[in-house]
Amino acid sequence: MEFIIHYTPWLLLGVLYGFIFGIIPIAGAGTALLTVYSFIGQFKGDPYSLIVFTTAIVVAASVGDLFSSIVMNIPGGGGSAATMVDGYPIARRGEAARAMSASIFSAVAQGTFWGLLTIVFLPYYAQVVLAFGIPEMWAFLILAVTSITFLNSKYWFRGLLGLGIGIFAGLIGSDPVSNAQRFTGGWFYLADGLQFAPVMAGLLALPEILQNIWFKNGYLKSPTNNWEQIKQGYFDAWNNRWLSFRSGLIGGVIGLLPGIGGPIVDWLAYGHTVATNKNETVPFGEGNIKGVIGPEGATLAQKATAYVPTVLFGVPAAPFEAVIMSLLAYVGLDLGSPKLLGNSLFFNALSFGFMASMFLTFIISIWFIRYATLITRIPFKYWAFPLIALITWSCVDYTGGWEDYAILFAMTVLGLILKYLKISRISFIIGFVLAHKLELITGQFVALYQFSDLLHRPISIVLIALSIIIAIYGIFFNKTTINYT
User: The pTM is what?
Assistant: First the structure.
């Protein structure tokens, strides 16, 4: 009880802090965690309070992401980007509260389930992670890009083109082997590559806002029966609980794999949702409620299991975990060290931070739904430009110089071009996110293994077989016509 009383203030502050950053378009958990550096000194006297605080930020921001995705058609921190595809069309027909409710119930249910599994069985997950060597990791990456390119739309060539452009953009920066600059045009600013926030904002968010301004699109139909819709959202999530569970399984497995997590998990879950639900009355992409239950079921599950490789091996499973590792190292907690693995206070703080923030975030989110829908009563012209300013602020904290603005502008132009040419922007994002990991794992695989070695490793055989099946299905049989541009 003394432990709970002592760390509850940090829990409350973390939840509120993370939730605010979650509902800010594009910001999310990553941006929120980066800002902690400005007051990291407050935690030096009690490093375990930082564990509670940062864990609460991750949970609250991950749930907060879905509000802007559904109401504004703009992704939060990246983890709810797939939720936009069906969430915004649902909101446009006056059922924003229903979509948010179903998303919250799906996310929290899977986050709680996988959070408990992570906490209880954390010491035993080492064997699961160790089962994925370089061949298995390479095969899994191939499966990930194949699923995104071939499964979600019948226009697979545009998906491949978008993926290729995204991989090229992701390779801009320094060569990991020679440390020489590549594709930078001699611009030193690009030595560390393109930053994630302006890429997400320019490719996905700003083109939609500018389109709404240009065509003077009307505002959303305002819900008048929020509590009825919240109740309906609960029943939607319950009736599709097995879809939510399968999506949680996707998120949970991906979270266990070092470096794979992050923005791809919701799209893999969405692809699974589309592939396993044929002949729907409401087509996907036009407001199918399953289109928000699926991806949101994966987000918090991935956040929970991402702590496993990070804590056990000191290898971040997702970008936000890399920031957490750095923050904790600053206050003297070295993740992956044998000493820390035997520290009961560390695991108590981690468990309390994750599970208690899950409960508190759920309460806040349900309460916040009726206020989130108030934005649908405001004509777009009144909040479009403040929203652009807010998104710009979220994307220009890398150096604060003119270069940040130039990259954001360039990405917005590129986003508009891809949108006009109907080249998949989502495939671009996936290629951009996985570029360095694909390069690293492919290089290691080619140097140490032969392709025939894949046939002698059961996990690799299964993953490659799934990739081939998905590619064949996408080229010859897929009739899905969702507009991912």
Answer: 0.73
